[in-house]
Specification:
38% strand, 5-stranded antiparallel sheet, alpha+beta, elongated
């Protein structure tokens, strides 16, 4: 036969522990943590909460209409600082010339074919100013192998190109061909 006193004691202790666990878990985590914080920290948290309640959101503009953004001025002329949008495994670019004309951004890169440093090359990259995804790329190797090209001058869309061996070429950007100088 079971002794009822120890059984009742065990049941009472169990009920107490379950009740204490429920009360503790019902207390929010931040309230229990706040009880353990120093008074200075509690004061700072209280002030921060007051500031948060007093804060006002940034004013919203009543004008929500879309406005056109002015396009950034595109630098023109001979440029040494233009990163070439080509893989170095295909082309080595020395410099470029660029200008807006005919409704296009026109970039002309000068250099050589990576696999053959003697084969100079001009690459024309044309981008439609109204549709920046509309891009054409054309390659023009020099008529004779004279080495890598560098743009040294431009006049009326005609580029003067200096090859690595000293040969000078002229390239007409409008006609997209090498011409006699």
């Amino acid at each position: 036969m079971l002794n009822k006193k120890p059984f009742a004691l065990v049941m009472a202790v169990g009920a107490f522990l379950i009740g204490a666990t429920l009360v503790t878990s019902a207390t929010p985590q931040n309230e229990r943590a706040a009880d353990q914080l120093p008074a200075e920290k509690l004061e700072l948290l209280k002030k921060e909460e007051e500031h948060r309640k007093l804060g006002t959101p940034a004013p919203k503009s009543p004008d929500t209409s879309l406005k056109p953004v002015q396009a950034e001025e595109w630098p023109t002329g001979i440029r040494d600082d233009i990163p070439a949008p080509f893989r170095a495994s295909e082309l080595m670019i020395n410099n470029a010339w660029q200008q807006d004309f005919g409704g296009n951004h026109v970039q002309v890169y000068a250099g050589h074919i990576t696999e053959d440093a003697e084969q100079g090359l001009v690459v024309i990259r044309t981008t439609d100013v109204n549709d920046m995804e509309q891009v054409t790329v054309e390659r023009f190797p020099t008529p004779v192998k004279a080495g890598s090209l560098t743009v040294v001058a431009e006049k009326n869309h005609k580029l003067t190109l200096q090859a690595a061996n000293g040969t000078t070429f002229e390239f007409d950007v409008n006609k997209k061909e090498y011409t006699q100088k």
